[in-house]
Amino acid sequence: MPDQIQIEVVYALPMRQTTLTLKINTGSSVEDAIRESGILARHPEIDLAVNKVGLFGRAVALSTRLERPTRIEIYRPLLADPKEIRRQRAEKAKLQSLK
Fold first, then answer.
1. Does 4-98 carry CATH code 3.40.50.300?
2. Which of 42, 41, 64, 70 is nearest to 52 (CA)?
């Protein structure tokens, strides 16, 4: 029997977070772990072709192999480009300072 590791799969929405804990075989991929966790059934809006994933805040590929206990995070797409938001904020501040 292959060694198993305990992992968490996490997906956060603005008002709530889902955290699932499970044991998987050492060497399983991030994608295998996500699918096995059942989180895709709970959150059908997750599309692994679109949503990025990471381990403790560091982006990784779905094919990344898991060798030790970890936390898999599924990220939501950004609603706005951070650079564009900063540009708009700076422009607004500039206009207000001219008044």
1. no
2. 64
